[in-house]
Amino acid sequence: MTDSPERNESTGGSENQEKTAARGRGSLPYYLLIMLFFILVMWGWQAISNANRTEVEYSFFLSQLEEGNVKSASLKGLQLLGQWKNVETAQNELNSIVKGLNEDLKEGEKEKKSPELTNLFVTNVPAQENENLLRRMEAKDVKYGSANEDMSILILQSMIYLLPFILLMAFLFFAMRRSSDPMGSGGMFGNFVKSQAKRFQPSDSQTTFDDVAGMEHAKTELQEVVEFLKEPSKFQRLGAEIPKGVLLMGPPGTGKTLVARAVAGEAGVPFFSINGSEFIQMFVGVGASRVRDMFRTAKENAPCILFIDEIDAVGRVRGAGVGGGHDEREQTLNQILSEMDGFESNAAVIVIAATNRPDVLDPALLRPGRFDRHVAVDRPSREGRLGILKVHVRKVKLAETVNLEEIANGTIGFSGAELKNIVNEAALHAARDGKNEVEMEDFDSARDKIMMGVPREDIMNEKERRMTAYHEAGHAILGWMLPEVDPVHKVTIVPRGRALGVTQFVPEEERFHMGETRLRQQLAMMLGGRTAEKLIFDEYSAGAEDDLKRSSQIARRMVSAWGMSEKIGPVAYRDSDEHPFLGKEMHEQRKYSEQTAFLIDQEMRTVMLEAQDLAMKTLAENRETLEKLVSALMENEVVSREHLVEILGPRKGVERGDETETNGEQQNDSSES
Q: Which CATH number does 8-183 carry?
């Protein structure tokens, strides 16, 4: 698909509305032209009338008045408009005045020139001179009158004052005449309520299923959609109806948007993409109008695909929020439900939506007839990760030592976006070191950076380094000795990210189940750091805060959700994990008694203490090995898996049968900085 999409345009509207809009578009320029022409005529008239008068000084006018050379005069505000009896007399007098001024000029000053007078003149009268001036003109028998404003001048001034208001009214008149529905596609707010969906033309560079690796199940589910869009008659002749909506569900970064674009690329049809948050605006009704415009445009371009990303932003359960059912989001959702249910059975418009929170979607959105096909897009398997890596390294120059299968084996639980990030970070690391090819060690550094963070330059004193070494060695010893725990990949006391030390675990195989034995050993490994501190220093530190938090969450779920307690029994007591902004947990009461809550806390404490005892027993039995690992960490700061085999000996595995679990790489951090 192209990275420069063009906005779709709505072509809806009746023929009458188009004619009305055409009349409105044609009438507004004439109104403006007439107004502007009238203003220019008035301005020119005033300019021509003032051009026939010569402006003179008020003192010169008084001198001519005393000499009796003023024939008539009239006041207009503080301006005096008059006419000379003899313009030549006035000109001679003015020339003599200017000549006298030039004789008094100092050396180097520029001589002044007298202006050419006309029969009409104008001068500015000081405000305090009005009464004296009238008496003087009466004494000299000057015809005097009060000059009213010319009608043209009054009209011109009124037009200037009213011009902004007239323009605003003309705009509103023009906009309202375009459509009888102001909120419609051709109305005055048409661009505001128009759908923001981006349109990708089928002629653009396409994404196909060949560009999507590791999602064979999703591609199989969507193949029917592709075939329907290519040849809808094949299904319609047997009375079959293709699903109107396909919901892609999966964690972030697993490629839901990529799959949707691949469907459009395979089918060769237009692809409209929009984010769920783009429907929501501060004005009530705008979201619903955008939904109408989006679906109308999709129908006009059928067959096509309409993709709504992050649909949970607008499709949450109705009636759950504080504002009730009259807020903008719920009106938008109601419009989406109405539009999807209103499709004809042969309408070749497929709506594909993506979300990583299907549990919060409204049930009406998931019922048959709307999003009736749900496709899970999960994290890729080993073969899928290998395929994704091959796709992303197409433009990367790899060294012969790079083994993509080994990288795929060491990235269990990674999503497609995370694998792409590893490839990019490896290329950046090789470029910083000035290499011509990306080597295997660059991929190892990239994985360490993503999983553990960037190394910090913090300087710890000897006691802090030693305590951190025992903490991380405790995690490593428990992970090495307990067979159900994933094997240790690397141990470091170099501060990374927010942690002062990290123990990194890499699973050897993918898993989908966790037994009680594995969970209890996992808890013991998590508590191994603080247990080692207690064993060596006879005190606990604050560095185990994150370990306690994560292990407590697992222990509580073992007791209250997974039925792994004899006293609690096979009962699930749900602790709320709903988000408060959904409005659900604000009023729901806990569905078990205080006595049961106390019992859950006691059983949870028992599980944690048993895990701590297992950790203490294991570390006490391997005290000599613990000291060796600490010495290696104090000396080298980083101990790899190969070095761990030399120190701790071969790790004994366990027969797991077909049990597998996908929980990706794990890491246990020491105290946060």
A: 3.30.720.210
